[in-house]
Design brief:
about 550 residues, 27 strands, Glutamyl-tRNA Synthetase, domain 3, ATP binding, Rossmann fold, Ribosomal Protein L25, Chain P, alpha/beta
Length: about 550
């Protein structure tokens, strides 16, 4: 990540552990990893983990691996793997060496399984899933040993080999660790660590019909890669004894330390891949990169900046406490980074026609304006004027409220970068809808204050002759409820989160924008003055054609109470 875009690190309990390990000599260098499953697109929770793992590696001059946790072939696709790589790079990070895959280690994982069988610490079990649940017990009742637990090493080796060779039906046998069916930690009650599954794998094809379980493959993959600190979310805290047990019972020289932190829950959003997949497959959003989703691809298409997401990750911090974050915190971080990097242009989204009755061609003048008031290097552009203008409909009121400082009949207002105008007449259609304002220019006010009076209001505008039409997509939050997947009905059951989708979350309009944006490349960010931050759409905008803009975020939090 480039130094100019770097976010200064903030101390947290993970960094304190690493500092102590380096100070004691336990480790000479830091090695982390980011291990996503290629079964969907990454979301804001993954972004937090990416910033943590890659950020720590960078801050300690260490290394971070990107490893695809590809042990569930039925749900994994090359599309998802490619999207994960693109998302990590877009956020500003680069992994150590090549992309790694858990499937790279399938031979070693199989070898360690045989080692465990030979040591009498694993057995082939014929119980089906329902029988296994019944034997497992619960928090009040200890489990019961499987009737197949005492099979001989020779029999287990033979059965496991035949499982690998495809002699048995899917689900008919599993390989289980022999730990403790009376353990208060249910994860240690002889967990399954290999199952039969005939499915074509995105990397290994049909070579394997047995696949390792996450709790087994993950710790060994970490150890094979020399990971020093294996950072994961808090739901894996109860799995840590199993992580350690596996590594303690095989002949592997490295033993990484698993450290858990709280997962991110972002209000007004969904961070479950399964539920995100529902939204996509049921056509409730336009795809994994729909700008209303907080997938990394969706946030990118919305116009969020990588720097804004990194700043957000820094602000929410890393802890073991509940990490419920309001959406406004994310939007605030995005606003803060866009403010300095986005050139400013004028757009009118809800236009009303203004006719300048005393416009004189060749006499009525124009001025130039900077693209950013604090960044001269962004340059300037001409703001042309013509007899017909567009202004925002919200900037005119026939019956203005108290304190109104915009345009009204008989009132004056400053056109930004231009003249003071006065509204002399309001034209309405047969339905009483205002269709035109007839206004007059004070010709002495181009770059000058009017004589003998003070005009407080300033509005934005655009010349109808020089403006270009643009498709503008106005996005709001996707859900009307802060925690859409945590609402229970009268019967105590969770309600379907999809019923809380905000039907007003997308509005597409035709707007008028300065012509200087026409040749902008996709993913060019702008501030539309007084309106918010917008981006040319990553896919639908074509430079030189009709512009397509997505609203990234308003200038202020429009959801604030």
């Amino acid at each position: 990540m480039s130094q100019e875009n770097a976010v200064a690190p903030t101390s947290n309990f993970v960094r304190q552990i690493i500092d102590a390990d380096l100070a004691s000599g336990k480790h000479q260098a830091v090695q982390t990893r980011f291990p996503p499953e290629p079964n969907g697109y990454l979301h804001i929770g993954h972004a937090k983990s990416i910033c943590l793992n890659f950020g720590i590696a960078a801050d300690y001059q260490g290394r971070c691996n990107l490893r695809m946790d590809d042990t569930n072939p039925e749900k994994e696709e090359d599309e998802y793997a490619a999207a994960i790589e693109a998302d990590v790079r877009w956020l500003g990070f680069e992994w150590n060496g090549d992309v790694r895959h858990t499937s790279d280690y399938f031979d070693q994982l199989h070898g360690y399984a045989i080692e465990l069988i030979k040591a009498g610490k694993a057995f082939v079990c014929d119980l089906n899933a329902e029988e296994m649940r019944e034997h497992r017990g619960d928090f009040q009742k200890p489990g019961r040993n499987s009737p197949y637990r005492d099979r001989s090493v020779v029999e287990n080796l033979d059965l496991f080999e035949r499982m690998k060779n495809g002699e048995f039906a899917d689900g008919s046998k599993t390989l289980r660790l022999k730990i403790d069916m009376g353990s208060p930690n249910l994860n240690l009650r002889d967990p399954v660590f290999y199952r039969i599954k005939r499915a074509t794998h995105i990397k290994t094809g049909d070579k394997w019909c047995i696949y390792p379980m996450y709790d087994y493959s993950h710790c060994i993959s970490d150890a094979l890669e020399g990971i020093t600190h294996s950072l994961c979310t808090l739901e894996f805290e109860d799995h840590r004894p199993l992580y350690d047990w596996v590594l303690d019972n095989i002949t592997i020289p490295c033993h990484p330390q698993q450290i858990e932190f709280s997962r991110l829950e972002l209000l007004y959003s969904i961070t479950s891949k399964r539920k995100l997949n529902q939204l996509v497959t049921e056509g409730l959003v336009s795809g994994w990169d729909d700008p209303r989703l907080t997938t990394i691809s969706g946030m990118r298409r919305r116009g969020y900046s990588p720097a804004g997401i990194r700043l957000f990750a820094q602000r929410i911090g890393v802890s073991k406490g509940e990490n419920i974050i309001d959406f406004s915190i994310l939007e605030g971080a995005v606003r803060e980074t866009l403010e300095t990097e986005s050139p400013r242009v004028i757009a009118v989204l809800n236009p009303i026609k203004v006719t300048l009755t005393n416009f004189e061609a060749g006499v009525t003048g124009s001025r130039s304006a900077p693209f950013h008031p604090h960044h001269e290097e962004m340059g300037e552009r001409e703001i042309p004027i013509s007899p017909t203008l567009w202004i925002e409909r919200d900037d005119f009121a026939e019956e203005p409220p108290k304190g109104w400082q915009r345009l009204t009949l008989g009132g004056e207002v400053r056109l930004r970068y231009s003249y003071v105008i006065k509204c002399d007449e309001v034209i309405k259609d047969a339905n009483g809808e205002i269709v035109e304002l007839k206004c007059s220019i004070d010709p002495k006010t181009l770059g000058q204050n009017p004589e003998g009076r003070k005009v407080k209001g300033v509005i934005h505008w655009i010349s109808a002759e020089h403006a270009i039409e643009a498709e503008v997509r106005l996005y709001e939050r996707l859900f009307t409820e802060p925690r859409p997947d945590a609402i229970r009905g009268e019967d105590g059951q969770y309600l379907d989160f999809k019923q809380f989708i905000n039907t007003e979350s997308l509005k597409t309009i035709t707007a008028y924008v300065e012509a200087c944006v026409k040749d902008a490349a996709p993913e060019t960010r702008y501030q539309f003055e007084r309106l918010g931050y917008f981006v040319t759409d990553r896919h639908d905008h074509k430079a030189g054609g009709k512009p397509v803009f997505n609203r990234t975020v308003t200038l202020k939090d429009s959801w604030a109470k």
